[in-house]
Amino acid sequence: MNLFDLNSKVILITGACGVLGGGITKYLLQNQATVVLLHYKKEPLLEAVNDLKKISSKVKGYVCNVVDEASLLSVSKKIISKYGKIDVLINAAGGNKPGATVAPDQSVFDVDIEQFKQVIDLNLFGSIIPSLVFGKTMAKNNKGIIINVSSMAAERAITRVMGYSASKAAIDNFTKWLSVELAQKYGDKMRVNAIAPGFFIGNQNRALLTNSDGTYTDRGKTIIQNTPMKRFGGADELNGAIHFLCTDASKFITGVVIPIDGGFSAFSGV
């Protein structure tokens, strides 16, 4: 028996056109999973699906809004009609907004509450609502896996990213809470876990972490100083943990948040 087999899995990924979701999608397709991309914009979704078909024909995309229950319910019916089941949901949709952060020349009292609410809505409810909609379908079969995406900002007080930190801290608690609820009422084949990425250089944070000449900014240097492995992560270094959590290799694991951070969360700074 291959504990890591993905061949028969139908895996949904929200935010699938982002850097995180896109990288995970490619990896899962390369390992024979059937992957369903969920994204709120039609054009990027079609472009991503067409590109991914070069890797595998086992890819499909649906336009939906992760904070709109009606949109998710409609897509859920289409997915069940086509595939008959949902094995895994990966909640990779998320993001931040400038008004929900504290700039170097600002204080916490300058935070834009409306943008703060928007960040909470996307990062927290953008995981809660899909989990409830698709989780209900899984529960009918007493079998399914939900994987949320947390952050180092959930566990540690990372300066500036106030709204993002609050929403990701809530994701940690929601992951644990839902794991208990589903296991107690629907059995040991209903599992909920999360990954907590450390620091990866992407388009959104590149200017914060690196200068135009490729050297690290002061913030980038501080992160490296507090990362025992002394480097930033690569997006592909999330794939092993995702693969593990999607399969029977982790069938007695639920309610955990796995740091993928080069030791950042373990380091005291001294």
Structure, described:
43% of the residues lie in helices and 14% in strands. Helix 3 (69-83) runs parallel beside helix 4 (113-140) and helix 4 (113-140) runs parallel beside helix 6 (162-186). A seven-stranded parallel β-sheet has the order 3-2-1-4-5-6-7, sandwiched between helices. The longest helix has 28 residues, at 113-140. The model has no long low-confidence stretch (mean pLDDT 94). It is built from nine helices and seven strands. The protein folds into two domains: 10-198 and 236-258, Rossmann fold; 205-232, no CATH class. It is α/β, with parallel strands linked by helices and 270 residues long. The chain has helices at residues 19-30, 42-52, 69-83, 113-140, 152-155, 162-186, 206-209, 218-225, 239-246; strands at residues 10-14, 34-39, 59-63, 88-91, 144-149, 190-197, 257-260.
Question: Any chance you could write out the topology, listing elements then pairs?
Answer:
Layout: E1 10-14, H1 19-30, E2 34-39, H2 42-52, E3 59-63, H3 69-83, E4 88-91, H4 113-140, E5 144-149, H5 152-155, H6 162-186, E6 190-197, H7 206-209, H8 218-225, H9 239-246, E7 257-260
Helix pairs in contact: 3-4, 4-6
